[in-house]
């Protein structure tokens, strides 16, 4: 039997999925598990999207253009223009989820063995895409004591080597919920310009900004238009994660035409998803106001509840629907497993994502977990109570 | 401005797409273009698939399992069992089109720099996936004089080096339409066993076998179960190319669990496509009989019409809906461009795919084109007449 590839062996298993068998076992035992571990929102998909599918009138479900249907790209350009990002439809490549946009960007821009800098903690699947593309991730640590703000320029510059080709930022950030300010992006611009790097800006959570904070897109950084590649997704914006529609967007014509070659090899992005995504652009503004109101309330409740638990620290993030929380435990990975395997409170428990999976530096994030506030407030209330009970009796609790 | 990656530069542009600007220009001039160049069937998608979408009742279009919905995998296993391929749903990974199945298979099994042998002419996008995965394609030529039968074992073995990790076959074959016999597959089995290689079997055209010929799946080769990886797609089977649903199937547990890691990084295959694909399994048998009757008639007409044109040779393929045809021209690439740029017959022309794009050996396929018989007979009649007229006056016509 021939051996699998080294890349296959090195490919990281998702740090969240590792715990899935334990959560399944807990459910088999009849326990209710509150899922704080995944970014699957419970918000309904806009009706305009579902209705577009119900009214489908194609006779043949044909391939679309490799770059995505022109009608969708044109309409998507108007969405960006409306929010102050000046994009022409030729600068858009529709992808199979934001995931494929990230992969195409790395494949198009970075050689195997070259490096990309990412502030950690970072979205764990960047590891998988980097392994797929043979690219080395060089982490630059951000800290919970700073609410995970962008590391200092000097810290980032220390990580730049002759192999560095770019920087990836996720804004608002998954997993920290941190919203990078315009000033922080201007700092990034300086580095990018000085060292002639690509700036990969993952803006999938753009719509999720709270307390009136405004999102500043990397596409609006003047003077580095050819360096910036925006990665986007409709998954969270319209709560339609399953349709797998994203986009790679850049003013750099060479990157668009290179990414298009990767896109042509896989023929086309999902056609049905494009129908839903195109229709979603007509989602009424009220929908977003309601969603924002709901997430703000969830966040406010959750941050307060977490900070009331002895030994717990939770920053108050301004974006996305995640937060990285410091827990008074020996090892958050063990704690997460214990919650599913051994603990219950009135036959209920919670599932959290261990922080270490979001760090590239060994040993980091050991007493942190990522919590997604994608549950209704009633459920969050229960989940926070259960977490508090669990921390009170967890054998590996840190002593004060 | 930072430079793109070497891989991005080396990534081949689709040999078919290169001509697209010329076809668009021809259409702008008001010419009707008969598309014999692409594998987009005109056959209607089964109504059960479209109806499943019309009756969609999800409130949230959620992520599915990374390996695909369990309900779909279970039902897909019954489809395989019905056609005599014994597969359990755990041996199935649902992918984003057959394209992603090929990419995951290469990524999981082959290291950058290692080699895979493919009988040429071959599906041109294998080049793109190989470039993406850093894998080297080693062609072993099949010949039109043999109707593109599997090359002799000795010819294949000559190509095996210490870097060879596997063999890719597409059966029935795109672009040649050749249907490999059970005997040919048994020959492949001997090679695979002797040299401990992977056998990647792309069976996307399984349902398209004519003249009562039966398809023999590589999954049914006994004794090499851990070597065989079947790559499949619903695109052609149910004429739903645009939904992007395929599958990677293998009895090799290590490959399934490795491919699943690549699948987890991209989260899930398209959810809406899975709804359509799952419903499609209930397509009545009549549909396939009708489709088979239609393609048989198209093939019979087309092969006869082509062979009547002086200097043209067309084998009579037993599978898929393509054929590679020898034309009396200096350079089929130039001829294909000339058809679009300079020729018209009553304001009509045809678009064909130059043969060279399907070969890896430089200079091969220069007087061949791939023709897809995906048009109604009336249109095929016109297209064949136009092709005959064009060949009669083409300046680069081969002299007899």
Q: Order of strands in the sheet with the most strands of chain A?
A: 2-8-7-6-5-3-4
Please identify the oligomeric state.
homodimer
Assigned CATH superfamily of the largest domain in chain A: Type I PLP-dependent aspartate aminotransferase-like (Major domain)
Overall number of structural domains of chain A: 2
Number of strand elements of chain A: 12
Description:
The structure is a homodimer of 400-residue chains. By secondary structure, chain A is of the alpha/beta class. Chain A has two domains: 6-44 and 286-393, Alpha-Beta Complex (Aspartate Aminotransferase, domain 1); 47-280, Aspartate Aminotransferase, domain 2 (3-Layer(aba) Sandwich), CATH 3.40.640. Helices cover 38% and strands 15% of the residues of chain A. Chain A has 13 helices and twelve strands. Chain A has helices at 6-10, 20-28, 47-54, 70-82, 97-109, 125-133, 153-158, 182-195, 253-265, 271-280, 285-308, 332-341, 377-393, and strands at 32-35, 92-95, 115-120, 136-141, 164-170, 198-202, 228-233, 246-250, 322-326, 348-351, 353-354, 368-372. In chain A, the strands form three sheets. A seven-stranded mixed sheet of chain A has the order 2-8-7-6-5-3-4, with helices on both faces. A three-stranded antiparallel sheet of chain A has the order 9-12-11, covered by helices on one side. A two-stranded parallel ribbon of chain A has the order 1-10. In chain A, strand 5, helix 8 and strand 6 (198-202) form a beta-alpha-beta unit. Chain A is globular, with a radius of gyration of 21 Å. The termini of chain A are far apart. The model of chain A has no long low-confidence stretch (mean pLDDT 96). Chains A and B meet through helix 1, helix 3, helix 5, helix 6 and helix 9 of A and helix 1, helix 3, helix 5, helix 6 and helix 9 of B.
